[in-house]
Design goal:
single chain; about 190 residues; mainly alpha; Arp2/3 complex 21 kDa subunit ARPC3; transport; cell membrane; membrane; transmembrane helix
């Protein structure tokens, strides 16, 4: 139990530390950050439940107002802003990533972590992030405003996917390195 709590806390700290790497701000409110790499790694290394709990810990810190997100952001307002879908999506993204790594044991850990990161850390995350962005952009619109289509929101987010694919590959490589040099730390495969 104590080891689980320690690892959950360590991966929550990793997600926070990756947020210290300067974000690349874009004009429509969604910055490119490395924190999603931390989410992928939490699932790939800790597995579904522990990875999700690491993310939940970070989300709790955000809700308390601590500036733990990229750019020193925090507070409840983040949960209703343009990036809310992505922040909320971190939890199921880590869970799905970990679930896939736990289940695909026939493949090498790097491949399983890469697949899990693509499906969970990109697929699940973008599904929720795009819907959240779309809802935010269409909330409170007056009769003279033109609503944004879900397709437009998807097209706006599409340029982020190549960078996240690189993060998925990195997550696979890091998981493989952990499996090679510290196999007991790769709980998703324990």
């Amino acid at each position: 139990m104590e080891r689980n709590l320690t690892l959950i806390t360590v991966f929550a700290a990793l997600i926070v530390v990756l947020g210290l790497v300067p974000a690349i701000p874009l004009g429509f409110g969604v910055p490119i950050t490395l924190q999603s790499l931390g989410v992928m790694l939490a699932g790939a290394v800790l597995g579904s439940w522990r990875g999700a709990l690491a993310v939940l810990l970070v989300q709790g810190l955000v809700a308390l107002g601590l500036p733990v997100l990229a750019g020193g952001r925090g507070g409840l307002g983040i949960f209703v802003g343009p990036t809310a879908g992505f922040l909320i999506g971190w939890l199921p993204a880590a869970f799905v990533t970990g679930f896939i790594v736990e289940r695909i044991r026939a493949l090498p850990v790097a491949v399983a972590a890469g697949i899990g990161s693509v499906l969970g850390g990109i697929g699940v995350l973008y599904a929720l992030g795009i819907v959240g962005f779309w809802l935010f952009k269409n909330a409170g619109m007056g009769p003279e405003d033109t609503p944004m289509s879900l397709w437009t929101a998807t097209l706006i987010m599409a340029p982020f996917i190549p960078g996240d694919l690189v993060k998925a590959v990195l997550a696979g490589m890091i998981a493989r390195t952990i499996a090679r040099y510290r196999p007991s730390a790769l709980i998703a495969r324990a």
